Amino acid sequence: MKKFNYTFVAICTVLSNSTALLAAEWDISKEIDLSVVHSDNIALANAGAEQSDLVFQVKPSLGISGEGARLSVDFNYSLGAVITDGDNGRDEIEDSHYLNANATLEAIEDNLFVDLEADAGVTSVNNTNSAQDIFTRSNNLTQTYSYKVSPYYRYHFGPIADAELRYSYDSLENDKGNISDSENNQWDFSLTSGRHFRGFNWVLSASQSELEYSNGAKDETSEVNADFQFRINRQFTADFGVGYEENDFNNALRQYSDTEGETWTVGTTWTPNPRVVMKLAYVDRFTGGDWDMDLKYRHRRSVLTASYSTSVTNSRRQQLDDISLISTDINGDTVFIGDQELLINQLQPTLANENIVQSQFKLAYEYISRLTTVKFNTTYSERDYQTSLSSTENLDSKVSLSRKLTSLTSLNTSVNWVNQKDVTTLSEQELMRVKLGVSTELGKQSEVSLDFQRAENEDSSGANDYDENRVTASLAMTF
Fold first, then answer.
1. How far apart are CA 417 and CA 258, in angstroms?
2. Has residue 143 got a pLDDT over 80?
3. What pLDDT is recorded for position 345?
4. Which of 99, 205, 207, 264 lies 20 to 30 A from 123 at CA?
5. What is the rounded distance in angstroms from the CA atom of residue 167 to the CA atom of residue 466?
6. How much is the pTM?
7. pLDDT score at 255
8. 393: enclosing H helix or E strand
9. Residues in Cβ contact with 281 at an 8 Å cutoff, skipping those fewer than 6 apart
10. Three-class SS of residue 216?
11. Which are the contacts of 200, defined by CB distance < 8 A and separation ≥ 6?
């Protein structure tokens, strides 16, 4: 039985009800999606063991947003109820929850604020096992909940500087009993230069955090930094920073005998015109010297972004990224998790109390015209797991095309290629997913769609080899 998270429900209740009570203006949106899915390999089994099945999904959604003089609220929730015949070891109703909710309360004007956030979604447990989405039968999924409370105090030193002191508490819980839940306590302080400093910006900051897992494992980190930016001319700035960090991880990082010491950064920001911003920096810390890059290019009909970074992360942080409002589109706009294609992140790290040194490159492009939308994105990551002593290389690429055939009818197609390689064991998996669909508006408040999907997964060990053909018919209605 799934855990019932009383604290999580309380946070959601506050977020939803506060809108009606305190916001000067607020909007409510309601939607229900009805889908029927036929798969010729519902369990993603090997050749010869396939089982076909017909499943249904009912997905009601509710959105509430409002902004008043002292309170802003954005609440989005979807219930994904998959209805089966109860055979093959499945429940007759398998429910999953998707939530992105956040609010900011200005308790004392211009000084004291409180941020609240609650999120929910479905993530994979082990990235070496098959789990494509909530329609396929799999024990490799867990319902994940998180909530966060963050009060902070701001003080303005006139035109000289702005100070902020923030405390944050967040909790992450999974409904699988064999996965550790966790909670994090963090303090942050920053002092940022004000408008008095022209052509010279600076930030002094400090942070301290304590991450504790339900099995008793604990990570403690702290750092202080001083960052500076000088404007050289209209196009270039010189960026540099110095700092010191101390890290006490629950498991020693196998590659690094010392996880504390000085840090420094040197780089530049290039803005040749209002459409292009590129940041390039060389960062040195206990993991060694690495490059950081961030590029944004905007044109009238297209957007291009690219980034590269190296960091110490963990599966907990990846889970939070997958279910929270960190999810944004290429324009930087927030995307509600319930509105996304509910595919499981194939490249999420296996859930464990383990730190990971990760280098990641991301590239995304989007072109939008009156009739056609083209999207491309790719992510390549190299991960060194510091407890299991494994190393992986992962690549996830997707290209999609949407074309209006008439004023009411659209054609949608996509190709997704995922490659997972374990450098330590020399094992490899490769997934190819092709989708073709058509959608038609029945009116201003309803739409029907029909989609065909073909998926092929190849595993060097043969354990997770499978092929699947799927047809999905859906009706979406808004109220």
1. 38
2. yes
3. 52
4. 207
5. 48
6. 0.85
7. 65
8. strand 391-404
9. 239, 265, 266, 267, 268, 291, 292, 293
10. coil
11. 193, 228, 229, 230, 231
Segment 47-64 mean pLDDT: 90
Residue 12: pLDDT band by 50, 70, 90 thresholds? Answer: low
pLDDT at 363 over 80: yes
Q: What is the DSSP letter of 45?
A: P
DSSP string, 152-196: EEEEEETTTEEEEEEEEEEEEEES-TTS--EEEEEEEEEEEE-TT
Least Cα distance to 8 among 99, 122, 72 occurs for 99
- How far apart are alpha carbons 474 and 454 in whole angstroms? 18
Give residue 20's pLDDT: 42
Handedness of CA 171, 126, 348, 309 (dihedral sign): positive
For 213-244, b/e burial (b = at least 16 CB within 10 A) is beeebebebbbbbebbbeeeeeeebebbbebe
Residue-range domain boundaries for the chain: 6-478
Look at residue 17 and give its three-state secondary structure. Answer: helix
- Reading the block at residue 201, the tokens are 């910006």
pLDDT digits (tens, 9 = 90+) for 366-383: 999 999 999 999 999 999
> What separation in angstroms does the CA of 402 have from each of 34, 73, 141, 368, 439?
22, 32, 30, 9, 10
Instruction: With beta carbons less than 8 A apart as the criterion, state whether 61 and 78 touch.
Output: yes
Contact 213, 183 (CB under 8 A): no
Q: Which residue has the higher pLDDT, 161 or 15?
A: 161
366-395 as b/e, with b when 16 or more CB fall inside 10 Å? Answer: beeeeeebebbbbbbbbbbbbbeebebebb
